[in-house]
């Protein structure tokens, strides 16, 4: 059922997994969606599917580690649809390894995408949301925003940071901009494919045996953004029922 006015949602990391599922779910709900990720051919396919189904979607090749590219994505949203109601700052990577393996380039990539990319995304939409008098920023934390496990020190560090940044945003923006951190356990996406350390890859595959579908996370995001304006859902933690930690 289309909404009264199309609300506008920018989704980063929309080329696969949770971002793609969220884009489809929000589009089905009547949001105009603006899709960003590096693999633009996937974004083009997703946007075409949404438009063919009667929705509104556009896309731009976006690397969230490059501030100007995320600003261009936000500018596209405003130029095409006039405003930005929701940002789903979802882009992330998870190349797990123990610190002693010294996979320093992977540590840097996690910080660049999961922390600096998140900040670049917030910076790209915040002035527009402040100017239009409101908005909603949804970030992707993790159960790793609340606990640390071996081989996940840096990844969990980035997700603790995502949690802290979202909480700070919530406090600073109270009354104007809603902030929600979504903290999932294992979700069946391409994320664990990024584990290159051979010792950790097998353990990660085992951990993901009970992984839930990305649509479960998309439904949680939809729940948060669909609340009436006076209600702010600040965090949702969701795990596979079978997942203990
Ligand atoms: P996927 O690997 O399926 O998706 C990750 C997305 O991030 C892709 O669309 C990828 O697109 C994008 N991305 C990666 N690097 C960049 C970049 N530099 N610039 C722009 N986009 C980028 O994983 P998920 O869907 O699982 O991950 C989405 C989020 O959910 C992440 O933040 C992750 O940490 C979080 N999360 C996932 C969990 C899980 O178990 N799956 C659990 C808890 C949290 P492209 O490569 O085309 O740029």
Quick rundown:
This protein is α/β, with parallel strands linked by helices. It has helices spanning 17-28, 40-52, 67-81, 104-132, 153-172, 198-207, 214-225, and strands at residues 8-12, 32-37, 56-61, 86-89, 135-140, 177-184, 235-238. Helices cover 45% and strands 16% of the residues.
Secondary structure layout:
Elements: E1 8-12, H1 17-28, E2 32-37, H2 40-52, E3 56-61, H3 67-81, E4 86-89, H4 104-132, E5 135-140, H5 153-172, E6 177-184, H6 198-207, H7 214-225, E7 235-238
The chain binds NADPH dihydro-nicotinamide-adenine-dinucleotide phosphate (NDP).
NADPH dihydro-nicotinamide-adenine-dinucleotide phosphate binds next to helix 1 and helix 4.
What report would you give on this structure?
- With 245 residues, this protein is an alpha/beta fold.
- The chain contains 7 helices and 7 strands.
- It has a 7-stranded parallel β-sheet, sandwiched between helices.
- Helix 5 links the parallel strand 5 and strand 6 (177-184).
- Helix 1 packs across helix 7 (214-225) and helix 3 packs parallel to helix 4.
- The longest helix is centred in the middle third of the chain and has 29 residues, at 104-132.
- It is globular and about 50 Å long.
- It starts with 7 loop residues before the first strand and ends in a 7-residue tail after the last strand.
- The model has no long low-confidence stretch (mean pLDDT 96).
- Bound molecules: NADPH dihydro-nicotinamide-adenine-dinucleotide phosphate.
- NADPH dihydro-nicotinamide-adenine-dinucleotide phosphate is lined by residues 12-19, 37-39, 62-65, 90-94, 113, 117, 140, 142, 184, 186-187, 189-191.
């Amino acid at each position: 059922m289309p909404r009264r006015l199309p609300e506008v949602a920018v989704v980063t990391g929309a080329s696969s997994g949770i971002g793609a599922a969220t884009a489809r779910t929000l589009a089905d709900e009547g949001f105009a969606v603006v899709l960003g990720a590096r693999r633009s051919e996937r974004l083009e396919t997703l946007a075409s599917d949404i438009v063919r189904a009667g929705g509104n979607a556009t896309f731009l090749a976006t690397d969230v580690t490059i501030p100007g590219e995320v600003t261009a994505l936000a500018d596209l949203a405003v130029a095409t649809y006039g405003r930005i109601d929701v940002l789903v700052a979802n882009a992330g990577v998870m190349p797990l390894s123990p610190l002693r393996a010294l996979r320093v380039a992977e540590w840097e990539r996690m910080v660049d995408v999961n922390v600096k990319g998140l900040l670049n995304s917030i910076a790209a939409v915040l002035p527009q949301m402040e100017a239009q008098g409101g908005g909603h920023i949804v970030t992707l934390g993790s159960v790793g925003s609340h606990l640390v496990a071996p081989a996940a020190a840096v990844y969990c560090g980035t997700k603790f940071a995502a949690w802290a940044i979202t909480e700070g945003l919530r406090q600073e923006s109270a009354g104007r901009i809603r902030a929600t951190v979504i903290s999932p356990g294992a979700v069946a996406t391409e994320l664990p494919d990024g584990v290159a350390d051979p010792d950790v890859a097998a353990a990660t595959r085992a951990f993901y045996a009970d992984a839930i579908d990305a649509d479960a996370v998309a439904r949680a995001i939809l729940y948060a953004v669909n609340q009436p304006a006076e209600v702010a859902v600040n965090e949702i933690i969701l795990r596979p029922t079978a997942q203990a930690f």
